[in-house]
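Board work, copied verbatim: Thymidylate kinase
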Amino acid sequence: MARGALIIFEGVDRSGKSTQIKRIFNQMVNKGENVHLTRFPERTSEIGQTINGYLKSSNDLSDQAIHLLFSANRWEHAQSILNYMNNGTSVLVDRYAFSGVAFTAAKGLDLEWCKNPDRGLPKPDLVLQLDVDEETAKKRGGFGEERYEKVEFQRQVRKLYSQLREEHSDIWKIIDASGSVDELTPALQTHVDETIKSCQNKDIEKLWIKKD
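↓ predict structure ↓
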């Protein structure tokens, strides 16, 4: 059986990725394709609820502790993601380990330390970074509702995405997200469709672990 693809949508807060991933998902469902949609943090588990409280500023944790919780949240769903992929279902994910690394490193923690907890997660087949400058993001609805939604912090996150993109240039596409919602969707859909076709018979690799 041809496997499904793992496709990640990344970007600074209010870049439009959540809107776009839902549009892509709905289009794929309407075409009868096998697809599953999820997001991180996944806030329904006990770990996810703790993270949600932190993001809403209702509890405080050290930078190291919250980083490890974000990673644990991904790990508790990793096997489910693999199961979908191995059964021929593509998985669309709103934020993944790259967000975890970029957001924690933006606080000043070591980039390599930030990667370590996520080593071995399923490696994505495609990362779509919806790129928009921080000032544009600030003008969009809802900016500032959660802990990390501050312009200077988002600027640093964007710089760190650039570093991560250099490491994963084979799978990472940067998309100008400053245009209209309707203009953006077709370009994203093309990248998604091409990736699903190209990875069907490839092995699922592990993130930040070199192949033997």
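The chain has nine helices and five strands.
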